[in-house]
Amino acid sequence: MTDPARTVLAGLDAIRSDVEDLYRDLHRHPELGRREHRTAKKAADALRRFGYEVTEGVGGTGVIGVLANGDGPVVMARADMDALPVREQTGLPYASTVMVSDDGGEQPVMHACGHDVHVAGLVGCARLLAGAKDAWRGTFVALFQPSEENGDGADAMIDDGLTAKSPRPDVVLAQHVLPYPAGYVGTRPGSFLSAADSLRITLHGRGAHGSMPQAAVDPVVMAAMIVVRLQTVVSRELAATTPAVLTVGSIHAGSGPNIIPDSAVLQLNVRTYDDTTRSGVLRAIERIVRAECDASGAPKEPEFERTSSFPPTVNDEDATERVAGAFAAYFGDDAHTAEPQTASEDMSEIPRAFGAPFTYWAIGGIDPERYAEAERKGTVSQDIPVNHSATFAPVVQPTLDTGVSAMTVAALAWLGS
Ligand SMILES: [Zn+2]
Ligand SMILES: [Zn+2]
Question: Quick check: pTM over 0.70?
Answer without folding.
Answer: yes
